[in-house]
């Protein structure tokens, strides 16, 4: 439950600190006095978005702090899961800086807004006037039934399985799209791959083949020039080799006279040896130079195939062709891989369907069992609230479709009067009837939830008199097991509170301020009398106010 709320520099509130207690707390005040400001401030503490317009003084920061007594609500797991320090008296603080930035703290640990919002689900239910329209929302109607059916744990399991199922279906859709694309390209890719494999590129050295082609294409010219070189070098009378040998013999005769001559002899001798070796190699070249048209044709065709493939795939080397070959092989193999992946995923989806069906069947069964209990409780409360002929027609029907909260479709119909047909709440229920039904729903839900606090913001819209007294009685009964706040304009409800707060405006130095005050017993009599008769309090209004309080 909330024990303290402190507000500083927010909207029309300069500085405010108020303590709250158990039971039913009433908040009253004239229209525009600032009741909505209190709810706005509390909303900020619970994680709602804020902006600079929230600041009363734009040059100073706004601070809103709320203390919650949570020892009885088993919230330790939430604090552990979010790495927060647990305290029985937990303090939530929200700061809005003049720059527009916002900071939030739980027990002095900085947190983000999502963590505040998650924690608020365990702390307070703020029922504003527009939320009465939620009664016509199917999701809210399911929440009512599921609370009574105690389906929370099953719904969590279903939600996890449903998320997995949707992801699997999405993955299967992607795989099938990939498969369709792969199948379209499969034949062409297989053709290209076979073409490259037939070329046997692994054993191809393009530069070497180009050299061989050049040699085979010019074998006659090469042979002619090599033979001419041999003739010049090795002619027995006038050949270069014969002349070098004569030079060598002549110099050999001078080697004994000087080391200089010996050096010249050695150098000439080296040339003779080198030239002799060259002549031998040239002889081998001539012997090996054969005009081979068949080999020339083979090399020409091999190179033409390589050039053709390079042009086709727009590359310049055999290595690039080999990389394309590997890529094509991967794509061709990928089709069979995709087929296997699709089969595996389809089996997983089938298992998910079995799990979803099993959980949703349990959810459906629990809902069916809960509906008579819900109907009985709603009618019992609404009869007290002046709706003696109210009837509900609530049915849950299992479908083949998977929704966020199971496989059921819901029919939640209502009739307020004898002889009238059932209809949708939003079409056949008046504002006052909707307010009473919502109060009945909240009263029932309070029996099944462990929520510490609920705030009713003018849930009494459209009712008065004896019905208002009954609504107050119901809120009073709810307050025995939880902290209840009621923002009201009706004296019949205001008189039911254990404590009574008044919101009012003051003007100081031409500045308007909203303030909140806990009323004493005497002040409370006057406040309720004013609610009965207006600003001028009559004696009869005072008597009536005391009677209501008694």
UniProtKB/TrEMBL annotation:
Q: One GO cellular component term, please give it.
A: bacterial nucleoid
What GO molecular function terms would the record report?
ATP binding
Which Pfam families does the protein's record reference?
A: SMC_N
Which GO BP terms, alphabetically?
Answer: DNA recombination; DNA repair; SOS response
Keywords for this protein: ATP-binding, Coiled coil, DNA damage, DNA repair, Nucleotide-binding
Gene3D superfamilies linked to this entry: P-loop containing nucleotide triphosphate hydrolases
Coiled-coil intervals:
209-236
Q: Could you tell me which CDD domains the record lists for this protein? A: ABC_RecN
Domain spans labelled RecF/RecN/SMC N-terminal? 2-507
**Family the entry assigns:** Belongs to the RecN family.
- Function comment: May be involved in recombinational repair of damaged DNA.
The protein here is known as DNA repair protein RecN
The species this protein was found in? Flavobacterium luteum
Q: Please name the gene that encodes this protein.
A: recN
């Amino acid at each position: 439950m909330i024990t303290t709320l402190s507000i500083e520099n927010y909207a029309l509130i300069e500085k405010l600190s108020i303590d709250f207690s158990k039971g039913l707390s009433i908040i009253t005040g004239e229209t525009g006095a600032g009741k909505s400001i209190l709810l706005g401030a509390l909303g900020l503490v619970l994680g709602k978005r804020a902006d600079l317009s929230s600041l009363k003084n734009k040059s100073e920061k706004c601070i809103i702090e709320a203390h919650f007594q949570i020892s009885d609500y088993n919230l330790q797991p939430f604090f552990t899961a979010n790495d927060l320090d647990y305290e029985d008296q937990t303090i939530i603080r929200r700061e809005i800086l003049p720059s527009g930035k916002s900071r939030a703290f739980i027990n002095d640990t900085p947190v983000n807004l999502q963590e505040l919002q998650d924690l608020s689900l365990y702390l307070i239910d703020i029922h504003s006037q527009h939320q009465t329209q939620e009664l016509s929302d199917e999701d809210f109607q399911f929440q009512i039934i599921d609370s009574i059916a105690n389906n929370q744990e099953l719904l969590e399991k279903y939600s996890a399985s449903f998320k997995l199922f949707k992801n699997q279906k999405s993955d299967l859709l992607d795989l099938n799209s990939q498969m369709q694309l792969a199948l379209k390209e499969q034949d062409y890719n297989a053709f290209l791959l076979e073409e490259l494999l037939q070329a046997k590129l692994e054993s191809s050295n393009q530069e070497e083949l180009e050299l061989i082609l050049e040699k085979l294409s010019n074998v006659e010219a090469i042979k002619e020039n090599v033979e001419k070189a041999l003739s010049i070098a090795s002619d027995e009378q006038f050949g270069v080799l014969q002349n070098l040998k004569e030079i060598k013999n002549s110099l050999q005769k001078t080697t004994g006279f000087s080391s200089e001559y010996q050096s010249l002899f050695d150098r000439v001798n080296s040339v003779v040896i080198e030239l002799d070796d060259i002549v031998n190699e040239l002889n081998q070249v001539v012997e090996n130079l054969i005009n081979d048209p068949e080999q020339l044709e083979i090399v020409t065709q091999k190179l033409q195939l390589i050039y053709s493939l390079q042009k086709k795939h727009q590359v310049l080397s055999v290595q690039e062709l080999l990389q394309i070959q590997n890529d094509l092989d991967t794509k061709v193999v990928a089709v069979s891989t995709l087929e296997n992946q699709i089969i595996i995923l389809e089996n997983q989806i089938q298992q998910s369907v079995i799990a979803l069906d099993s959980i949703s069947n349990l959810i459906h069964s629990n809902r069916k069992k809960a509906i008579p209990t819900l109907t009985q409780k709603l009618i019992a409360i609404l009869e007290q609230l002046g709706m003696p002929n109210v009837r509900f027609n609530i049915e849950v029907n299992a479908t083949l479709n998977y929704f966020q909260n199971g496989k059921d479709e819901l029919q939640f119909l209502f009739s307020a009067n004898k002889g009238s047909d059932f209809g949708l709440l939003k079409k056949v229920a008046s504002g006052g009837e909707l307010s009473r039904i919502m109060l009945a729903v909240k009263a029932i839900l309070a029996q099944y939830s462990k929520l510490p606090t609920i705030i009713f913001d003018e849930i009494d819209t459209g009712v008065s008199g004896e019905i208002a007294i009954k609504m107050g009685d119901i809120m009073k009964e709810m307050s025995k097991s939880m902290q209840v706040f009621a923002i009201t304009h009706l004296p019949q409800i205001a008189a039911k509170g254990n404590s009574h707060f008044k919101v009012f405006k003051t003007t100081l130095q031409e500045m308007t301020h909203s303030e909140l005050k806990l009323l004493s017993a005497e002040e409370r009599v006057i406040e309720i009398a004013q609610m009965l008769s207006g600003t001028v309090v009559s004696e009869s209004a005072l008597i009536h106010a005391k009677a209501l309080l008694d």
